Amino acid sequence: MKFLFKNLSYILIPLLLEGYNSYALGSEAPFKYNPADKSFWNTTQNKISQNKFDEVLLSSFKKNAQSNNTIESAEAQLALAQGLMGNKYEYLPYLILKKIALQYPGTSVAESALYELSQLDKTMEINPFDKEDFIIQNDFGPVHPEISAFLATYRSFYALKKGFTGWVKEQIKLIDPEPSRPLDLLDGENQIYEKGADKDKDKDKDNSTPSYWSYLLRFQSAVDLVKSNHLSQAEGQFKMILENNQNPIKIKNQARRQLARIYFEQGRFNEAYNEFTQLESLSLRDQGALYLEMAWTKFYLKDYFKALGHLAALRAPYFVNSLSPERFVLEVLILRELCRYEDVQTTVNEFNNVFSSTLSAIKSRKPLRENSTLLNLTLLENSLQIEANSIDLIRKEKFRFLNDKNLNGNSFLNSFFQEYSNEDQRLQKVLDLKLEEKAKEVAEMVLETNDQMQFISYVSQLDRHRLNNSEKENISEKPIISPVHFTHLYWPVTKEYWWSELNDFEVYASSQCQQTIPMEWQKMETHFK
Q: What is the mean pLDDT of the chain?
């Protein structure tokens, strides 16, 4: 009974607040904090505008110590969180803001802490906390519509996951009360999409701009539509997100990548590649995965020079944690397509060298986590990214904290420092459980890829034996360039990889099929295809 009441309270609390939150949506002025100590707050904001974040930290420490457990103390902590965010901390300010929101509910400072959390959420590439637990389980009292939209978005995610479709409809009103492109629930499924074939008909009559949270909800609904194979509706949702230049790069990158994958699945390879090239500010792991997707796209466009160039870029030390067997499979497919059988064998040999220890570990049934290559492969799985990136963030911030003279040794912040370690341990346990199961799947994939590589090697050797004895070209051969008229310069890449040049890599591997395969074999190959 207690469990049932607890879960019902998650639903009833936001609905009871609906009357307050909805009355002023679209008409209320942007959120503005009403400080308790205006002199302190105005001075703090002036320092922030001048990027004097270290001064903000010092003054906040002093103010907090002087105003023990009062609203002024909470205000000092709010300023401290802003200063930390200015110094590129994320997890530590989250802990402080959450503490303020929970300890001072219904106050202006708690409302401002929720607002700062909503702004932090827009820019963070990872989520080191469970927002659903934090938002669903707590009553924050009446809040500004901007904050209400933030809370309603994550309540909607929770409701969709649990199947509470009626609640989702109510939450949508708090996020975007009069959308120019209305949202509705897909009958029989927990998904949201733009309804009506004439969704753009009256667009010009409505000058309202959907909020970021409306776009975030649209993105999540579009992902669900992709999963259920409603690709045309999903495409419209992703395009709408990209139309708004004010959306943070995080959500635009996610929408653009999903859109590119839809185009790829539909065989619209030029459009897919164009979207891939517009992704920006990616992590190294994501950039490595992107080059592989771009290479596959160019492969299907038969632009083998550029496809091989993207694969060559993946050899850069930057992408050691993005190493994938799939890279070698694609490379041998391209080289075999070009009848460059000697180069096929060179790539197969490289694959064998790179994955020999991994294959041995798998076949000898050693603990899969002990092999670094297999561990990195497992962490490439999207389902593990949140925990992996969160642990990485926490450990980096912890290291910075210990070496930051403005932070380490402060009695107030030291109380939060243990939470770094606690969260690290908690997330590591969650990740270990997922890794144990996922590593088995990845190990199977490596074994299957090894079989494919050996088969392609065998078939390529057979093809090679059929060829005449004409001289083979080297894979690094360059096109003939006029000594007088030229538009490009070409030079080989050996051991140095410059980040600014990776996108421009091309590998000039001309086809050897025509010069080496007898005419009757060419006819047979064409007929076979």
A: 79
